[in-house]
From TrEMBL:
FAD-binding FR-type domain ranges (all copies): 4-111
Family: Belongs to the PyrK family.
Taxonomic lineage of the native organism: Bacteria, Pseudomonadati, Pseudomonadota, Gammaproteobacteria, Vibrionales
Note accompanying the cofactor annotation: Binds 1 [2Fe-2S] cluster per subunit. Binds 1 FAD per subunit.
Protein name: Oxidoreductase
Amino acid sequence: MHNLTPSAVQLVDFYDDGEHTRHFHFRLLEEPEITTHEHHAKWRHTQTGQFFMLSVPTFGEAPFSFTEVPDENGYFRALIRRMGAVTSELFELEAGQILGARGPFGAGWPMDEIANKRILAIGGGCGLAPLVSVVNQLIEHQNYTQLSLIYGARSRQTQMLNPERERWQHIIPVYNTIEEGGVNGGDNEYMGTPSDILPTVLDSFGELPEIVLLAGPEAMMYSLAEYLVAYGISDHTIYLSIERRMHCAVGTCGHCYMESKYACTDGPTFRWDQLPKN
């Protein structure tokens, strides 16, 4: 039987990171390494690509990706866009407030499959969030043979995770695309969408990427996956992080049902050849 009791977490701090978007820093109040409760101990084993449910008392809860999974002291991060009642109230809170969190949930990125490969990561809008921890982990352990990132946003004002992308671009190729407002002439900023720059990035690999990681709007990911397969990349080496409204996170409410699968339990990470397409 699922335990739906949230763990107590503290809002440590936050900073604005894009239009109507903030990067939040949380801390589990129970020490993960000493707790005897199973649903607390699970936090210690969070995998990159999983998600959690954040609860704002009296306002409800909502799912969010980890941009930084819980460390040994229970600190973790998430990028959150102001979109509804829960996030609107969260944006009114001050550091030090106590909230609730359930998790971790779902299937993360297949790190064993990804390691020591030629990897292309593509994120759009808030969809870059599920890619942050995997990119950080790959860079930290240097367990890739080639790694490039494409990030698409509507405009410069809506670009997110700016500190992360600034740091990454000194280590790996980062291609930032924007659709409105023009570019600033920087070497890594391009007018258009990830689809527009994709052929150039693929050519830069020499050999085709062995792994592709996609995160962002479903229409964008599906279109890119179809293009990549037509380009010659195997459909079982393309992975997508699917965002759905996950009310329960344990596969009982049915809100994230996808044919025979649930985004919350079978995903949010899916391999393209195994993903229901309807």
